[in-house]
Amino acid sequence: MNLPHQDSLAVLRQNFPGWYIDHDTVLGRWIAVRYRPLTIQEAKAGAKYFLQRGCPERLKVALADQTELARRTRTVP
Question: What is the sign of the dihedral through the CA atoms of 35, 41, 42 and 46?
Answer without folding.
Answer: positive
